[in-house]
Amino acid sequence: MKKLLNIAIGYRRISGKDQSKYSLAHQEEAIRNYCNQNGLLLSAIFTDNGESSGTFDRPNYKALERFMKKHTGKVQYLIVMSHDRFSRNLAEALMKIEDLQSSFQIKVLATNEDINIDVYDPLVFVQRAFSYLMANQELLQIRKRAKESIHYARLSGRYVNNAPFGYINGRDRHNKGILIVDEEKAEVIRIIYKWFLEGWSIKEIQYYARRNGLKNSGHSTIQRILSNCTYAGLIKISSQSGPAKYVRGIHQPIIRESDFWLAQEKKGSHKPSKSQPGELFPLRGVLKCWCGKSMTAGYSKGKKKYYPYYRCIEHTGTNIPADKLHAEFKELLHTFKLSNNQKEAIAAKAEFLLGKTLQDQKSIIEARLKQRADIERKLNNLDELLLEKQIDGATFDRLKSRLHEDIHVLDNSYHESVNMSQKWLELEKILFKTNTMRDVFEMATLANKHSLIRKLFRPQLVYTDGKFI
What we know:
The protein has about 475 residues and is of the alpha/beta class. It has helices spanning about 25-35, 60-70, 85, 90-105, 120-155, 185-200, 200-210, 220-225, 255-265, 320-335, 340-385, 395-430, 435-445, 445-455, and strands at about 5-15, 40-50, 75-80, 105-110, 165-170, 175-180, 235, 245-250, 285-290, 295-300, 305-310, 320, 460-465, 465-469. It has a four-stranded parallel β-sheet with strand order 2-1-3-4, with helices on both faces. Strands 9-13-14 form a three-stranded mixed β-sheet, covered by helices on one side. A three-stranded antiparallel β-sheet has the order 10-11-12. α6 (about 185-200) crosses α9 and α11 (about 340-385) packs antiparallel against α12 (about 395-430).
């Protein structure tokens, strides 16, 4: 009598974040070896390439289930290289295995499991549960690392998405993504901001943008461009626990930062006011009108330029010039004298922070200078390669342009580090001359300024009849 063969099908899966040991070829080899060693006839292998492990809503896994349903009773085994190739979702994986066993009489096995194991044994269930638990934990770690990597990249000033209109995606010398200005399209962005600040209607701006290459230039598209801080050389860092903050990008800005913030004020957006660079309105959010309502801030259009002002959200008819208000407030702070103990405590803390910061900046500066020297050597080598005809003119121009872009990025970072070191050294001199709360206020960050105001003026800081009370 002819011996009946046990028939098996294989399943392999890979996602974009898997490592080489999980390659499709490696999985197939492991499945075929397992079938050969255990006398199984492998009739088919189903593959999902680039599919998530968190769900069974995968195209070829669905095809696999249709195959099993069509051949119920003929196929006895489903072989995977390891259980994390089947799924990384603990609950769904165990339920799916039980469903396959009861619906199609299919025994699901990984290549590290004995073919004769009793899948109904509680110990096997526990072992598999632990295996899926570890796979799920690994998936969560992968996602966490990816999220953190993107967050740190943004904090360092790197744009991590597809380039917006006006830029193209490029690579720096470390093969990391960087935005490169597309000059032809960038001019369209400059015109959009210029015309908007000059009072042109969105409809007129739309017409111009559409004729100059901006696709889908509807009302919302223009508004998104006007709200995109990337054009001002900034990266927006969102936060779940507080207001968003903005960091300097390593890419070249298309518009001036001041024009971007003016556009936000003109659009009526209040979001930038919480973390607006330059601290143009340090009293916004903490200053109250005599009526108890908060004082807001913005820009008022004059004959030649925009002027910063404060006004009550209730009494909107009166604008108080920001320069006047700031000057009066600083004079008020000047009356708060610091004791010798307070001055010594501030100086001691600052000295500690100064030493640490300067050391960090020194390391960064040294690294930037070394990297620049390396690029200069490569540029010199390019000249030699061109003279010796080892590269053609087009290749020379392309490589030279890329290296000059690297130098531009490094120079910006170098100058920022040098400026930071100089600022800290200047701060050290200022700290020892700090005598009043005005001195402290002028050196503080926006958040610390607000904190200082709330502590000094309890229950609140009020402005009425041309004076603070």
